[in-house]
UniProtKB/TrEMBL annotation:
Polar residues bias (residue ranges): 29-43
Lineage: Bacteria, Bacillati, Bacillota, Bacilli, Bacillales
PROSITE patterns: PROKAR_LIPOPROTEIN
Pfam families: SBP_bac_1
Alphabetized UniProt keyword annotations: Signal
Region (Disordered): 26-52
Protein name: ABC transporter substrate-binding protein
This protein's record includes keyword Lyase: no
Alphabetical list of InterPro entries matching this protein: Bact_solute-bd_prot1, SBP
Amino acid sequence: MRKLKGFSILMLCLVFVLTACSGKGGNNGTTTPANSTPTNGAAESTPEPVVEEDVPDLDGRVIRIAAWWDQTPAGETQSELNRLEKIAEVEKKYNVKIEFVNIPYDEMVPNFTTSALAGEPFADIIQLEYKLALPLIKQGLILPISEFTDETSNINNGANLVEKYPPIAGDYYSFESPNSLGAGVHYNRNLFKDLGLEDPKEIYARGEWTWDKFLELAKDATRDTNNDGKIDVYGFSGWAPDIFRHFAASNGVKLADEVSLEEGLTSPGSIETGEFLNRLYNIDKVVKIGTGNPMEWDEYNTFKSGDVAMFTTAEWNLRDLSFDFGIVPIPKGPNAVEGITYADYLKNGKFIGKGVKDAKLVYKIYEETLDIPMLEEYSGQEYLESLYGFEDDVDMLRHHISGTGLISVEDGFPDFPAWPFVNDIVVNQISAAAAAETYKAQAESSLKVFDQQ
């Protein structure tokens, strides 16, 4: 278990080495006279003719890339500076202006829908969560990747600049720069050490990281450490709907299939997951509920008090903590599917809408802005190492969690009853089987909404 020393220091050393080795001409400080004879005595070959690229002039067109946060490179790192330089180069090459538009999350879909239906999408490339993209795809307002890329596109050749994101509704629509993110169970390293608990990574390495082992750890961590008759350290915390989705996925459950339109909320695996949640919250009582309501989104932050051993939260919520933390995959359920460890229900990526003028050229230009020197050992290194302080956590994310998400779009179907199902189990303490019976018809009918349009 090695603590990371920081990406910025590594890059500073790399830049120094490259500068020292590169000389003024970029050829180790040596030059070759233009008319010199090759040193091996071989005849000089005739150079291949250079074919100039036919670059279209877009007459100052503004290409807009919209998201619910500002995606403009800040220029605070060398990679960001290189990207800004590349954007300026591409703008000059095509006579365009690339504009990053920051649109409030709640306004993204209404703005896009209205403008796309009018035949003029307000942005050429938009950031969308999969669950919000699904209805737009069903309405034919989003283009599949095959309509704006070709065999020469990087996304179809190596994909080191841009990669296809997982399919949705039976085809590939979304694209994004490669990364190594994913959801797992985080744990408070300090608390584990103080309580004398076994590191979850050791359990995972033995192939024993299951629901049963997770519950055993959570029960052991839930303690009255000062003997005042009150529990002051808990085994687990998180937002109940989030916990349910992740553990359902780790038990082989897809809650809603957007292709077959089959619901899995009331499947045996889902009921089994509901029963496990009931154990966590109501039987073994290992979950700390900071807000008093397990269905409140702010339960996402309960772990920050430092008295919770394990927790689920997104990576962006891990900054400025008072303790060291680690990560392992969501533990395997009894019916786990190989290669699936968590529910990727917040998956988001870039999409191009129907009606975008010269969509192929727009995508080509966007892809070119990403063609900058690779300063990282792997894509996303700088971001990961700014969050995770230990090498084994970065390795765990890259090699055991990233790419194991089950795309979950049940929230893309209006009235799909995932939330009330979990609420009945965790808050109202209704059996999972009874809750499944209550919401079965609603789950089935909600998936037919697009067939009725």
